[in-house]
Amino acid sequence: MKIVSHVMKKQIFRAMIIGGFVGLLGVAIFLGVLQASTQLPIKNNGSNVATNQSQSETIPTAGETTSTSNASMFFATQAGVYSNYESASAFVAEYPALKESAIVEVDGKFYVWTSMVIEESQLEFLQEPATFKKAFSVSGESCKQPTLVELPAALADKNATKLNFKENGKDSTLPEDWQSIGAAASTISNDISVIRLQVFAHYQAKNTCLQVKF
Questions:
Q1: 147, 148, 195, 209: which could form a disulfide with 142 (CB 3.0–4.6 Å)?
Q2: d(C-alpha 207, C-alpha 101), whole Å
Q3: How much is the CA Rg of the chain, to the nearest whole Å?
Q4: Peptide bond into 96 cis (omega under 30)
Q5: Which residues, including other chains, have CB under 8 Å from residue 138's CB and lie 6 or more apart?
Q6: Contact at 8 Å (CB) between 205 and 196?
Q7: Residues 62, 118: contact at Cβ < 8 Å?
């Protein structure tokens, strides 16, 4: 009887060990499945973010309008960007080549631009200081005045007819001081890309409704 009892105890003890092992294995499998199911949405979300970033970096053709607004696309040659106007002005003063540049404030940063064109192929870069391409859009949709709403489109005019300030003709679709501001910009340079930049910088500085997005 003692031998039988001893054998039964061994079998019960072995069964307990096997049962415990199987139980732990089941818990491990369950946790593994649960972890995999929770990680799957995270991977999908990460993929969506990457796709959205890729789409946001796509630059439409100059003069083309985006699907969400009537923003006009432009390209600028940028020499630098600063956190305040004083620093930007000091930088401009260091280089004679920047005498025709303009300082444009966007979201609290001050950008030093030397030209503004509607097609990337029209960009001409400086060597000293070195300039590089800056793509951006301008929208006047937030403006209350109809003439300011149409201003980005006037600046993006491919034939540059609205930027011909030698003629005294008045255009009711443009701001009243359009001709005088353009004439003043024309004294700075004969280059249409510089004139466009100077006119834009003037109106953008005085009208916060003109939204610039990079």
A1: 209
A2: 20
A3: 33
A4: no
A5: 71, 72, 74, 152, 155, 200, 204, 210, 211, 212
A6: no
A7: yes
Residue with tokens 């995270």: 42
Query: How do residues 88-100 score in pLDDT, each as one tens digit?
Result: 999 999 999 999 9
Helix (H) or strand (E) holding 72: strand 72-82
| DSSP code at position 54 | H
The lowest-confidence range among 15-24, 29-38, 65-74, 104-113 is: 29-38
Contact 126, 77 (CB under 8 A): yes
Digit-coded pLDDT (tens) for 144-179: 999 999 999 999 998 888 888 876 667 888 999 999
CB 108: neighbour CB atoms within 10 A? 7
CA–CA distances in Å: residue 122 to residues 75, 118, 131: 9, 8, 14
Contact 70, 135 (CB under 8 A): no
